[in-house]
What we know:
By secondary structure, the protein is an alpha/beta fold.
Amino acid sequence: MAYVNRTNAESGVNLLALRSHNAALVLDLLRTAGEGGISRLELAERTGLTPQAVSKITARLRADGLVAEAGRRASTGGKPRTVLRLVPEAGHAIGLHLDRDEVTVVLCDLTGAVVAERRVPLDLGAGAEAVVESAAGEVEALLAGAGVSVLGVGVALPGPLDHARGVLHRVTGFPEWDGFPLRDALAGRLGVRVVVDKDTNAAALGIAVVGRESGVGKTGDVSPSPLESFAYLHLGTGLGAGLVIGGGVHRGARTGAGEFGHQVIQLDGPPCGCGNRGCIEALCLAAVDRGAVGEAARVLGVGAANLVGLLDIDLVLLGGRTVAAHEEAFVRGVGAVLEERARLEGVDDGAIPVRVAPGGARGVAEGAAQLLLAPLFGRGED
C-alpha cells in the first residue's frame, strides 16, 4: 500500500487550505473554466473577492500544485492578463460502488474524469469482513503502479445507512450488515479517508455537480442554470431514490431519506425483503421478472408521481441496470403516469419531464468519487 498517500503532506494536496470557502469558490471557477483557463481579474469579478484576496488564494493553490498558468490573454488596456487553469492530475479520488452482486471502482481526477476503472462480481451477502477485503483488494489493484495522489475513497451502496457515521443499517436482504461500521473498517484497511453514502445519494450528487455543466435540465437544452430540484430513481437489483432539493442532496435528519422503494402502494401485494407487502420495489422487480416491463414502468411512475406531488420537483431521472436494459419503455411508462397526473391536476405548464440519468453503468461509482471531490469545490458536504 505504499502507493496510497496516507497524509496530506505526502499527497502534495493541502486539504486544510482547500477547506476555505473562498478557495473553494476560486477552485470551482478554475475547474469549470477548463483548459482555456481564467484570469485573476475574472476570478475577482465572479467571486466578489478583492484582487488581492484572489492573488493570495491562487498563489497558495499554485504552490500546492493545484493551479498552473495557461498562457496569456489580450487585455482591453494595459499588459496581457495571465490565465490560470486547474491541474486535474494534482489529486485523485476513488469511487467505490458496492452493489448486491458486483463491485465497481473508478479513479477520478480533480475534474471528476475517470482515468481508470475496474468491475468484478461481488456477493454482498458473503459477510462484512469478506466484502471489505474484496473491496480493498480492488482499490489496491486499481492503484497498483499508478503513483497518484489520493484524497480518499467514496463508497456507495444500498441503504439504509448512517451517512454521518458511515454505519450501515439493515440493508434489505442482507440483515447481517446491520450496525456494521463500514467507513472505519475500510479506512483502517486502506489507510485513507473514507466517506460512505447510499448509492442513490452518490449518483444524485454526481448528477448535480456534472449536470449543471452538461446541460441536463428541465427543458433538456444546454443551459447554465443549475439542477436545483430533481429525483434520481435507481432501479437495479433494488429500488431507491436520490433527492436533490435546493441544489443539495437531501439526506434527512438521520440521513435516511430516499428509501423510495419501500413505500407501500398495494396493501395485499407480494412480500418484500424489507418485511412489508406491496412495496414499489417488490412490485417493480416482480413485473420485470415475468417480462411485464410496461407494468413495472407504470408502478415506478406511480411512485414518481407521489414524489412529484409531495416535493414539487422539476425533473425525474431514471438509472440502474434494469432501467438501462429497457430505457425507452421506462421513460415512456413513467412519463405517461406523470402526464396523466398533470392533466388531472390541470397543471398549465405540462408534466414534469422524465429522462435517463447521465453516467451509465458507472454513474454511481463516479458519484461516489464526488463525495470526496465536490466539497473541495464548494459543491457538497464534507
